Amino acid sequence: MTLTAMTLTVDALNQHYGSSHILRNVSFAMAERQCLAVLGRNGAGKTTLLRCLMGLLPASSGSIRYGMVELAGLPPHRRIRTGLGYVPQGREIFTNLTVRQNVEIAARATGAARSDVDAAFEEVVALFPVLGEMRNRRGGDLSGGQQQQLSIARALATRPSLLILDEPTEGIQPSIVQRIEEVIASLKQRIAILLVEQYLDFARSISDRYVVLSRGAVIESGASAEMDHDRIKSFVSV
Amino acid sequence: MSERPRHRPPPWRQLAHALLALAALLAAPARADESYGRDAVVRHLCEAKSEPMAQAIGALLTAVAAGREEAAWGARIVAALDGKRLLCAPAGPRLLRDGAVLRDPVTGREAVAPDRLPNAPFVNLRTRAWVEVATAALALFAEPGGAAASAQVAVLEKQYAIVPETALAALVERQPAPDLRDRLLLVRALQSLEAPSADARVSAIATIAGDPTARNRTLLAALAARPDYAADPAVRAALDTAMAHIDTWLRVGEVGAVLFSGLSYASILFMAALGLAVIFGLMGVINLAQGELIMIGAYATWLVQEALRALAPALLDWYLLLAVPVAFAAAAAVGMAMEATVIRHLYRRPLMTLLATWAISLFLVNLVQVLFGTQNLEFVTPAFLAGGTRVVADFMVTWNRLFAIAFAVGILALALLVLHRTPLGLFVRAVTENRDMAECVGVSTRRIDLLSFGVGSGLAGLAGLALTPIYNVNPTMGTNFIVDSFLVVVLGGVGNLAGTLIAALGIGQINIVIEPLYGAVAAKVIVLLMIILFIQFRPEGIFSVKGRR
């Protein structure tokens, strides 16, 4: 497989919810191990875009290619197996399962053997030590910040080559935000990251490229290093 | 015949005989069995009249009890009488047919067959009771701790009025097993009820009160109604105490019986509802055909029974256990076919699934009616499920109901094991909680749906197996269970084993408790009203899922 094999290419993606047009001809591409920030106001269609990428929402038209695979039409679990990992908005961990089981299910579902589950769990504990201390607690008993860490750990346990994060720092106390940012930064260079983020500074510092969505359409994109902070801020803030 | 003086006993000998006879007469009070002899027994039996026959058997038993007769000889004669192998008339030859040979019943020596064999003395209803008592008692004398000892004691219990007193006393003395000994003591107490002395009566009444059954209650009530019997204040008081005591225990027994029967119904409900709860919790599909899956399990069990009857009759007794995988597989296969062909295409359309599964339910009922007919199926009760054991008063724990309960406990354990200790269980719990996110960590929810539908249907099939020894099995049986199963699921909360268990216990018990009071239909109505009220206040069921979302 060539270096360009694991690129994500979204081409003319449209999505309708009832009669409202949510995504309008969204197109962008990201290379292997690249970090892409998706910016935009509330209601711009960022979460819808991610849910379309994951297959949780059906796209009306357009194509999503990851590597050699056309993802459009595949159920989410097949997309996970091609290498996507997903950290949804609002964390959505399994509250009835223990911390360890939340990680275990992700490892098991993507084909890890019983013996690999322990290794997978120890790996995420190395990133988020608090999960090791809480391993036998129910997911529902964790604080919001801990749940967010668990959500990221669970996505990593599926061994993604492209991690999709939907506002991973939203509504979380600053000390944990910092930890999460460190982990995401440490993942950069190893896997591709598609990040929806409200903190513009963090998004700019970590991403290689950025895309700005407004009313479901891409209105701006480019390299993060060349990002005009004030101009982008006017797109993003209310 | 010429006179032969030298054969005549000398006068001193005659005198000695007379003295001995006198001494014997003085030594023992004159009693009926004083003149006991095998010859007399056989002669009386051959008279073929109730009174002498009963007396002969009584004398025989008394003699055996006193050690003057061998139990074996008595058993042989009584068995011969019972089997019409004692051939004799009030006069003429007396013979005992022993296979092809004829013997003298007294000596056991072979006898020559006469030209015309005499008839066997007829054993009428009254004599039959004596024969039964004698057979049981003689067997107990021969072997007090034999394998059939309990059944033999039961015969004496039933015919307590005619068991000779001395024989009974000897049997009590020789009985090694304490429980059988207690039962024999009770038989003796029943006899002593009519004892002339008030003390004996009081102690007999107390002994009988120790065995609180409806039969003994009726017996004491009958005595209490006899003015002559209850004249003595001590006896009167003893009767009242005894009846009050028995009444208390009878009530305890009744409560136990109702609880037990409720528990067995709850077990069936639990098994039926478990599959339903898993499917409903996982997919939100209301499977109205779940009752028919129960029916399919029961029919699969019947087919296994018939197959064994035809192919391996020796294993027939074990058909229930051999049918376990078959009933599970049959119901699971039908359930998975349902899921793959119909229900899969109707997810997130609850009304459509409701109608579709109802249609499937009607289809299955009619299919089975066409294939097997509408009549109830007949099931052999395996030997290990026949009967039961008496716990207290008239409360019987019957093995077939106990089987259903034990089976349900086994299923519960298995379900817990699968749900909490296997990857499948992990996936099922995750999909139940958050279908989208389960997909997004790589779980193929379609596969989990299919498997769970199969397992849930298979559980219904096992419920069908477990109820075959208790309930009627026919094509429409499923409808009887589906409503109650749904109530269990709604009441217990979705996707929750503990809730399902407690709701099944509650609904099963309430049903069985109300039924005898107001009738089966009223019981259903009352239970429904109670659940409607309950759901008003706790729409999420007994247990709800807690925690941050």
From TrEMBL, chain B:
Keywords: Amino-acid transport, Cell membrane, Membrane, Signal, Transmembrane, Transmembrane helix, Transport
InterPro entries on file: ABC_transp_permease, ABC_UrtB_bac, BCAA_transport_permease
Stored Pfam families: BPD_transp_2 (PF02653)
Membrane topology note: Multi-pass membrane protein
Primary localization class, coarse: membrane
Region forming the signal peptide: 1-32
Residues passing through the membrane, by range: 265-286, 293-312, 318-338, 350-372, 402-419, 450-473, 485-505, 517-537
Coiled coil: none
PANTHER family: ABC TRANSPORTER PERMEASE PROTEIN, BRANCHED-CHAIN AMINO ACID TRANSPORT SYSTEM PERMEASE PROTEIN LIVH
Family: Belongs to the binding-protein-dependent transport system permease family. LivHM subfamily.
Record protein name field: Urea ABC transporter permease subunit UrtB
Phylogenetic placement of the source organism: Bacteria, Pseudomonadati, Pseudomonadota, Alphaproteobacteria, Rhodospirillales
